[in-house]
Amino acid sequence: MVVFQQPHTRTSVILTVLFLCNMWTGYGILFLVPDMMSHGYCSMSEWFDVIYITKNGCINYTRAEYIFFLVITILSIPGYVVGPWTCDKLGRLITFYYSTWGGLIGTAVLLFCFGSVVIYTELFVALTFYCIFNAVLWIYTPEYYPTYIRSTAVGLVNGISKFGAAAGVLTTLIIDTVSIVYTIYTYIIIMSIAAFTTLALRNETRGTLLKDDRDSVQDNRQPHYGSIDNNEQDQEHSSIAAGQ
């Protein structure tokens, strides 16, 4: 597949790993927390009804659980606001760094929230970092790839992210039956992989023009068919700057 061919092989592999880790942890924690509540992991579990199974073997969610997921959805908004803002102000790579390492720390702190209402605050912090991480992934990916494979690349990572989401749900479903703590350890390992993987990213796209093939331009080769002429881009950029 052209997305994984040179000169994009290295970055494509890195982004694949990051998308998988992001969705894996995000969805896994999302489905883990209600179970943490219903099994007394948090002192607020007295109002959180335990999930029960009907005589037909179907799992029924209570009203409190639906409200919980609604609240979680609303709490994800700040992350999607902060992420793009720091991408513009600090850069894409820095946003990658602090969101993955922050998400790692936020996930690890869940281990120490037993019997404390602080789990809600901690969950909000961890969720914010997950959302920032997700936002910068979707900002960086289309900026990095040239136009002749950009749609393919974005579509590919979107599909890969769904595998990560499914893996997160299955991880919680399987490992959680053994131990909630073991499940959290699993997500700590996954976020550790993401945090260290971001250190391998090299191309900063903040403040750069979107060119058809950045690597071809650096090698003084003609851009791929379908690209905007780089001289025209530079002239347009200079005109805009002069007008300011």
Textual characterization of the structure:
This protein is mostly helical. The protein is built from nine helices and two strands; from the N terminus they run αββαααααααα. It has helices spanning 9-38, 63-75, 77-89, 92-109, 118-144, 147-175, 180-198, 214-218, 230-243; strands at 52-53, 59-60. A two-stranded antiparallel sheet has the order 1-2. α3 (77-89) runs antiparallel to α4 (92-109) and α3 packs across α5. The radius of gyration is 21 Å and the shape is globular.
Q: How confident overall, as mean pLDDT?
A: 76
In which order are the strands of the major sheet placed? 1-2
Work out the helix count: 9
> In percent, how much strand structure appears in the residues?
under 5%
Uncertain spans, ≥5 residues at pLDDT below 50? 43-53, 222-241
Helix/strand-derived class?
mainly alpha
Q: Which of globular, elongated, flat, extended, rod-shaped describes the shape? A: globular
Helix content: 55-70%
Output the radius of gyration: 21 Å
In N-to-C order, the SSE pattern is HEEHHHHHHHH
Q: Give the distance, in angstroms, between the N- and C-terminal Cα atoms.
A: 43 Å
Count the strands? 2
